[in-house]
Amino acid sequence: MTLSIRVLAVVVATTVSMGGSALAQQITGVPGSPSATTTISGEQIPAPPQKFGGTIERTTVGSKPYWPARIVPPKGAPNILLIMTDDSGYGVPSTFGGVIPTPALDRIAANGLRYTNFHSTALCSPTRAALITGRNHHSAGFGVIAEQATGYPGYDSVITKDKATIGTILRDNGYRTSWFGKNHNTPAFQAASTGPFDQWPTGMGFEYFYGFMGGDTNQWQPDNLARNTTYIYPFQGNPGFNLITAMADEAIDYMNQINTLTPDQPFFVYYVPGGTHAPHHPTKEWVDKISAMHLFDQGWNKLRETIFENQKKLGVIPANAKLTPWPKDLLKEWDQLTADEKKMFVRQVDVFAAYVAYTDNEIGRVIQAVEDMGKLDNTLIIYINGDNGTSAEGTLIGTPNEVAMFNGVQVPVEDQLKYFYDIWGTDRTYNHMAVPWAWAFDTPFSWTKQVASHLGGVKQGMAISWPKVIADKGGIRHQFHHIIDIVPTILEAAKIQPPTMVEGIKQSPIEGVSMLYTFDRRNQAAPSTHHTQYFEMMGDHAIYHDGWWAATKVMRPPWDISGGVGADPATYPWELYDLRSDWTQSDDLAAKNPGKLKELQAIFWQEAKKYQVLPLDSTVVTRLITPKPSITAGRNVFTWTRPLTGTPNGDAPSILNASYNFTANIEVPQGGGDGMLITQGGRFAGYGFYLLKGKPVFNWNLVGLKWVRWEGSDVLSPGKHVLEFDFKYDGLGMGTLAFNNMSGIGRGGTGVLKVDGKVVATQTMEHTIPFILAWDENLDVGSDTGTPVDDKDYQVPFKFTGKIDRITLTIDRPQLSPADIQKLQQASRNNKTSE
């Protein structure tokens, strides 16, 4: 036997620098052989090219080949399955006292540890940016959601290159990395399929991506679904499609592919389904199952009491914890409701609960797939329940269309019962539940999603299992930790150091701390290693420091999305809580201990300056319509000369709060024309310009509640035609926002439809959509990829049967005159005086 054969399976250990410590570099196989592998120090990634160790002569005679070793993670590094659900507060899952069955989360908790003192940022994109970078959300550019981005470093929705994600770090250390589900961390103005892609998952270290772009999606017909960097529409022609199941199928197939081709190579799967963010879209099977359980018939007040008692029995809240009081000045009690209100509200929450159970069930399938591959023992599974508290964005009475809510439109309960009760949760609704349910699901705390100052908005239940390492199965941990602590925990578990250089760029320090110490049973009561943490969301702010919590009072309830204009967050009044003895924030000590409050306030401002939190901004929905550096920025004329589908909302020209003109030069075929010319949005808000049975139509869908149509009376003859829709807006537009005045937003106007220069229809709209179209739908030319603007007229894809020579959109945005400016300045001064 030759020496080279004898050492083929030998592990050779050398020492490389690891930030002051030492790491055993593992080299397997004969160096230079095709099967050789190596770990790297990880200090610089990608790793520098390996030195050629063979010999090169003039010919292959006498030369010796030498292959660079394949980079692998350190020996024993676990597979990693990182799971996080959406818009789910502490009291939602059964694992933390909720009444909704979540057996997959229960399974992880029983096989590992439950964490009762874990925190988010109070909102989607920010929590997710912090989760994948290990830095605070403002540090990572996500002080708010991507669609609200403003031109400040903490708020521009750009994760800069000095903050490499966990995907990049693990990939370059030899993991196979993937991302399934929600991506709310690509700037909304960079979501087009033309790129750039450096801020997409595949550009942030995730080798495979299957999921949706943006904050939420229609689970039945996800028009913003992508595979890697290509938008796909698997729901077309597939009426039973639901993304919650399709995503689990995709992840299971991917993991099995990795396991088949490279069974010894660890994988990192980032699994983040859309459940349970609105729209709540479970299958009928799950709705029937949950409805039959009658979990909510006694109402939201009784639900809180039940959850609270369950939490004490489970030990996930202290025995002396107090249930925070019901906010009678804000929300009705259940006994105050009419029979119709109770009926509708139970329907809303049954569908939400079905969505919770359905989502957890599909997560359970993914976990089971890991066990079926024989890899569960050495897989680190982190299951975070929710990226923030339960959402209160459904209005005080719920809504069949979340897009309506974000445009300030409410649907009365009687209309919900009459038109939407039976279809609630189906593809005909973009539904959300009433605020009091959200408050109840954040038991035992007060407040909800969007509120960073109070625990209802930021406290998340979490379970972690790693059978090979965690012996204290079923244990509970109470140490304070935050979403930024997940990355350092994963890296320590994998024995991989944070890089100091990535692609030649010096890295900013990771700001979280590892939680790995809590895996040891001996440390179950150890002090937390996370001592200080700021919280801030849309002006609302707080600071945690070694058991104390100072927070501003909630000045804008989260269901008031148009509020905050003109408010000064730096002047908000403060509250003070000692969480060591007051776990639920029940006893405000600000008046009793002003010295401590002053100390914590000073710490907050230090942290705010350090982590790019400034300038504080209290506005909410108005940020959606402030200009962004998209591909449309600075342009008022847009031209399409052929069909083009899939331009996402953030990259499409906006015609809201403006005058505009569509001119379509088309050719109608023999036998007549039919189909979509241009559309943006769909069933839940948007417009369409199309031919219907040969007649031209321009149709405005006003949040699925009203349709305004312009239609020609004559069928177009074969041949070339010029169709024109011209709209004159009556308002002052977005310029009013500079004066904290929204009087120019959502005003009406007059539309004129012309065929070959002749007016064929004229109509006035009393109001227009002020803030946003259906955000999960695209701008499409030549067909419609998502849902119809009007189901009575057509079904997708509604491809145009003729030829598009040219479609031109010209936008005329209102310009403020000196007189307008003077009026608005006076209105702004009057508002400040009244405040």
TrEMBL record:
Does Transferase show up as a keyword for this record?
A: no
Q: Which UniProt keywords apply?
A: Calcium, Hydrolase, Metal-binding, Signal
Domain named Sulfatase N-terminal: residues: 78-495
One Pfam family cited in the UniProt record for this chain: Sulfatase
The record's annotation in InterPro entries points to: Alkaline_phosphatase_core_sf, Sulfatase, Sulfatase_CS, Sulfatase_N
- What PROSITE patterns does the record tag this protein with? SULFATASE_1
The answer, when asked if Hydrolase is one of the entry's keywords, is: yes
Query: Hey, what's the signal peptide range on this chain?
Result: 1-24
MF terms in GO: hydrolase activity; metal ion binding
Q: Which family does it belong to?
A: Belongs to the sulfatase family.
Q: Which PANTHER family match?
A: ARYLSULFATASE FAMILY MEMBER, BLL2667 PROTEIN
- What this protein is called in its record is Sulfatase
Q: Tell me which species this is from.
A: Candidatus Accumulibacter aalborgensis
